[in-house]
Structure formats: structure tokens, C-alpha cells
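User: Some background: our group keeps a shared notebook of sequences we're curious about, and every so often someone picks one and asks for a predicted structure to add to the entry. Today it's my turn. The entry only has the sequence so far, pasted here. Could you supply the structure so I can complete it?
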Amino acid sequence: MLRSVKLVSTLALGSLAGCASLGGDKYAENLAAGMKTPETSSLFVKYVDPESKVVSYILKPGLVGENQQSLYFTAKSMTNDGRFLVFDISCNEYESFDVKKAPEKLAYRGKKKAVIDFMKDKVVVLEGIGGQIPYLDVDNDVIYYGRFSKNNPDVNGLYKRELLGDSEQEILVCKMPRELTEGASYVRYFTHLTLSGDRTLAYLDSRVDDNHIQGVLNIKTGEYTKWGESGLININHGQIHPVRNDIALNAWECVPWKDSKGQYHSIVRPTKENPDVIYPRLQLTEPGKRTMIPAKAHNAATHERWDEQGDGFYWCGRGVWYHDLKTGEQTQVSPIGTHAMMSIDKNYVIADNSLDGWWRGCAWQIYFHNRKTSKGCCPFTRRPAMCTKNAESNLHPDPHPQFVCGDRYVVCTINNADGHMDLAVTPVPQLIEMTSAAE
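Assistant: Of course. Here's the predicted structure to add to the notebook entry:
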């Protein structure tokens, strides 16, 4: 068994040579110390896609939750040293509809976080974090998250769990800025938490009553700096730059939101009457400045993300597109993508693709694209819809595939027709090999 682990590790490092910040030394040290991997862990079962023959490893269904789901969108689920994998757990989707009629039967309906420690080959449920999108520091094995209480503002703060220590111990990092929310009736500090590359700043895309405010919180001192306000324009999905501390990538949210007077506000969209309207999803914020970046090719964009070096960012919109921050040039990096992530060296893209139309709980495909050869393969060729279009999921079951562990693996969520979600881990070297072979 040890020999096969070494082989997988060597393949991964060899195939991904040139990638920055693989965390290779610590990963190798952990393997030598007896760390399990998804391939060797007792917590996973092997799965082979019937069409593509890609091998993946699925967390045993029902191990700690009826739904076991990778972290969403901006977050990575696994640390670079290969030791920890953080994921969401919740109840079966069909039962989550029933809970509206009988809430006492499913008090655990809300999402919780859990973490796998591959050195111990065990799972721990992390109580108190809930369904928010936390920030997993993949280099230092720390998970950051917020706690909020309107009735008890003293608990409002940024907290962390040090996974290398006692992952169940909650540590206060700093208080949330009261000057941001003094006298407010409604407060949302952030939507998707991100920290700066030096781990000193947390970016806050806040909503305070009917005003949207962007700024940064110094987690060392607790000092808050407001960058700007967008009023009724719903700027969120904030992601601070991975290197610079003075710029962040945001979205003008496409989902309508309701203000305190009950009025709905929507993003400005192109219409038949106004076809020349530029779709304004992509937004860059800096201190005192907000800039909209047009998606030039198709005037459509969603699920944007910085590349690892911060040279630019990419988004999905009839494929996956990349915007060079310095030159402004935009290029297609994958022909497929509803949600996507690029590898550290930008040579590979992992994406999902909704099948038979999109709704919360639709059928999905997971697609890997090799930019060096323009070839692709599917770790999961087709996953069935987990609910019908007229009874959409309210647990956000989109796959959101992501490169993790220094690009050794892809982690994603896969749907099942019986209404539950599984967490899947796919080794990357086989995907590169499958898309590198000669015709």
C-alpha cells in the first residue's frame, strides 16, 4: 500500500512540475509520517466513471451527514499539505422540504462544517461555524469564520480554528467593527470571506440596512477601513487580491434583493429594447474607487475568481474567460464552465456544466480542460438531477469543482437522484495523462 501512495505522489509532482506553492515538502513529510490520502483512507470508496473511466474517491455516503458537500465558490476545501479536508454537512434534500411542515423533526437541517484529518483518518464535526462560506488558509491549516448576533453584539467577531491543534477550540481573532453597524437594523458583514496574502486583512463586502459597503478589517489590530459604498447596488462575492492589499474582485449580484421597504432591486441586464447595455457583474474595488470590467466576448459573466498569482481573474460565461489585469486582454481558457477554477500554473481548468438546463439541483457534468493540448475529459460525465425544476433545492447543490492540495486533486460535490449530495476527490495526474495522449 505504501508503494502505491508513493507512486501517486510522484506522478502528481511530476505532472504538475512548475506549479508555484505546492506545499510539496510538507506533503511528502506527512506521507512519510503515515498520513492517509483519499486513495488509501478508510473514509473513502473508489468510483470509476462509467463513460470516461476516470477514477475518483467518494467520501462514504452518510458518514457524518446525509449530505456531504465541498466548500462553495471562493474557498478551497483541502490544505496544501494534504492533511485536512473541510466540508459541509446537512440533511437529505427531500427531507429539507418536509422540514417546513415539521421543523422539530429535523433540527439539524442547517449546514454544519466537518473536517477530515488524514493523519488520524478520522472526521470531526466543527460545531458553531454553520453554513457560511469560511476562509480556509490552505498554507497554515487554519479556518477563519464569523459569528454574528443581533441580540448579543459582544460575540460579533472573526474567529478561527487551528486544525493542527484542537480543531474544536474556537479562538477569537478580532471583534467586528461596531462603527460599521452602529444603530443598524440589518447587518451582513460579508458573503464569502477572504483574507489577504499576508493574512493581515479580511475583506468585508457588507450590507448595512439598505446600503452596501466595501472595506477591510485588519485582523491584527481590529481597525476597519472603509473603501467605498455602492448604496442600493448589491456588490458582494468579495475577494481580496492574493498579493496586493489595495484591490478586490467583486460581483454586482445578479439575484434580486429586497430592501427594508419590500422593494426588489435587480442587476442591469441587456434586453431587446436595450441590447447595448453592458452586463456589469465584474467589479473591482479599491480605496475610494470602483471599476466595472466588461465581459467583452459575450456580455455575460458569473462566478469570477482571481488566479493564484493575482495577474488577472477569470469568470464563466459561455465558457471560461480570463482577464489580464495589466493589459486588459481577455482570452477564453475553457470552452465549458458554469463554475470553474484554474490550476496554479494556469495550464488546466476544472469546471462544471449544467445539463438539460440549470436550476438548483439540476443534472451536472464535471469537465477538465488541458489548455496545453486543448483537450478535455470528464471526471463525472453525468450526475443526475437531485430534485425537479418545480421544487428546486435550497441547499445550493452546485458542484463547484476546485483544484486543491497544490493541484494534486480536484474536489467537488456530486448529486444523486435520491436527493442527497456526496463529496468527491479526483486525482489530477490521470486527467493530465488522458488529455495529453496523442490522437
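Suggested note for the entry: The two ends are 33 Å apart (CA to CA). Residues 1-107+335-439 form one domain.
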